[in-house]
Specification:
17 helices, 5-stranded parallel beta sheet, 10-stranded antiparallel beta sheet, globular, alpha+beta, D-amino Acid Aminotransferase, Chain A, domain 1
Length: 516
């Protein structure tokens, strides 16, 4: 008979939290194995669950395949002492695994494969992976069987919720993520409170709104504070990728009745959204209202940081986000690093926010989105903080890939990344390369195309293209990629070349729908 987990499946919330807190110090003991790239023995249990609001998640085409984004973490198996347990909702195509194994320079694929345990729920339902795992005691035991030493193991997740906390306790290993009791700090309302405490500028606005009446009150007060305001942004507290944002245009009349009517004509980030459904979500989830910052030239930079278990705050990277959709609010991709004329400022403000979060007990990775704008070339940039993401995001996996592939580091004084050879590296990444002509492409087809056209990442030149979301191609005509090169110009050229290759191979002249 298999040994049972050390705690009963039905534990009280008090017992769960007490055990979760008991496990926390173990993360500090193996922190160097996570961050320093050392050859220490450890086991990563990767559960790439998007444990997010399911109503919001259904707006994301191919959401179930986003679990594949964390396959970049297989590169950790370059450490010959490392082991990994990778859990998925559905089986991973063998060709996709082979694709990632070929990135492990200097390590035989067979050796890496022997240290990888794949565990699958075989459940394609549109729910969070962690929820599926917790329904299956035998699957949890399968995960435990893949952990050689629970004192040298940790749980990596896309985002932390009480579900991930419970899984951490049942596995008996610490969670490399935010304590779920602190998640409110990463909501849209919580972000504004943290910015205020850190002294970081943000748009004029109001948080902790719960109803349409709250929205009307906030919009009226915002207009009294900004008499020339033309537009405002409404944001759902727990939305992501900009899909819960809506644009409100002020009517000429300043009466409450005119404003009430104008709320029925807000512009959504998704064309399928309706006012009735949006306001129902707003009342259920809560949200904020902020002034829409106008500017002739605008960018959406972000900073990614990490807080250690001892409270040390480190800047990991900066990016310029690529936005699109009907209102220009949806995240489509990013370029690395952020522009040099505001990179240092967002790093500095990111550290200020990080110290506030560290004082509250936040641990692990997080990101901060900003808005930079100016009216004329040559002017100084105006900068405002928009939101905190206490989770992995669209900029996490490309930077992890760059760091693991090049063994490089970020120079905190310049914000530039240097590979082990000393070369400064740049990249462009997207999760949203989508086109009708891509429908039906299988993983085998993708591998054949990139091999024929030599689009593989090359360890010699430290440049090339990395593909992800490969499993979503056939059904959704959608994939992701990261283009790495030695200058922004080389990145753009290789990115365009890659799109041209797929256009030709798919025999349709229509260009992919992707941010330009």
């Amino acid at each position: 008979m298999r040994p049972q987990p050390p705690f009963p499946w039905q534990i009280t919330p008090e017992q769960e939290i007490a055990e979760f807190n008991r496990l926390k110090p173990k993360l500090a003991e193996i922190w160097s194995a996570l961050t320093a790239g050392t050859a220490e023995s450890c086991t990563s249990v990767v559960v790439p669950s998007l444990t997010l609001d399911q109503g919001e998640l259904r707006k994301l085409p191919g959401a179930s395949f986003y679990e594949e984004r964390l396959l970049f973490l297989l590169i950790r198996l370059r450490n010959p002492q490392a082991r990994m347990v990778f859990v998925t909702s559905q089986p991973i195509h063998p060709m996709i695994l082979e694709y990632y194994f070929q990135l492990l320079a200097g390590i035989p694929a067979s050796h890496a494969r022997s240290r990888l345990t794949l565990v699958c729920a075989h459940d394609a339902s549109p729910r969070a992976l962690t929820e599926k795992i917790l329904e299956r005691p035998r699957l949890i035991q399968n995960i435990r069987d893949g952990i050689q030493d629970t004192n040298r193991a940790f749980l990596t997740v896309f985002n932390s919720t009480p579900l991930e906390r419970k899984l951490s306790v049942l596995l008996g290993i610490p969670l490399n993520g935010v304590d779920p009791s602190l998640l409110f700090l990463g909501t849209k309302s919580g972000s504004r409170k943290v910015f205020r405490e850190a002294g970081v500028p943000m748009p004029e606005g109001f948080e902790d709104l719960r109803s349409r009446t709250d929205l009307e009150d906030a919009l009226l007060e915002l207009r009294s504070r900004r008499p020339d305001i033309r537009r405002a942004v409404l944001k759902l507290d727990e939305s992501f990728s900009g899909e819960g944002n809506a644009i409100f245009t002020y009517p000429e009349s300043k009466s409450r009745g005119a404003l009430h009517d104008a709320l029925s004509n807000i512009e959504f980030s998704l064309g399928t959204e309706t006012p009735e459904r949006y306001f129902e979500q707003f009342e259920r989830m809560g949200g904020i209202v902020e002034e829409f910052l106008e500017g002739r030239e605008k960018h959406s930079p972000s900073a990614q940081l990490r807080i250690s278990p001892t409270g040390d705050v480190v800047v990991l990277s900066t990016h310029d986000q690529l936005l699109g959709g009907p209102t220009g609010q949806m995240f489509l991709g990013c370029t690395f690093p952020a522009r040099g004329d505001y990179r240092a400022e967002i790093q500095e403000e990111g550290l200020r926010v990080g110290h506030v979060l560290a004082s509250r007990g936040v641990v692990s990775r997080f990101g901060i989105d900003f808005l930079a704008w100016r009216d004329e070339p040559g002017q100084s940039w105006n900068l405002r903080a928009l939101e905190i993401n206490l989770r992995m995001g669209g900029t996490t996996h490309p930077f992890l890939a760059l760091r693991f592939l090049t063994d490089g580091h970020l120079d905190p004084t310049t914000g530039l990344f240097h590979s082990l050879s000393g070369q400064i590296k740049y990249y462009r990444a997207t999760d949203n390369l989508r086109a009708e002509q891509y429908h039906g492409l299988r993983p085998e087809d993708l591998i054949e195309i990139l091999t024929d056209h030599r689009l593989h990442y090359n360890h010699g030149t430290e440049s090339g293209v990395l593909f992800h979301l490969i499993g979503s191609l056939s059904q959704f005509g959608k994939m992701g990629l990261t283009v790495i090169a030695n200058s922004p110009e080389e990145v753009d050229a290789l990115y365009r070349h890659t799109l041209e290759v797929f256009d030709r191979e798919c025999s349709i002249g229509r260009p992919p729908r992707v941010a330009k």
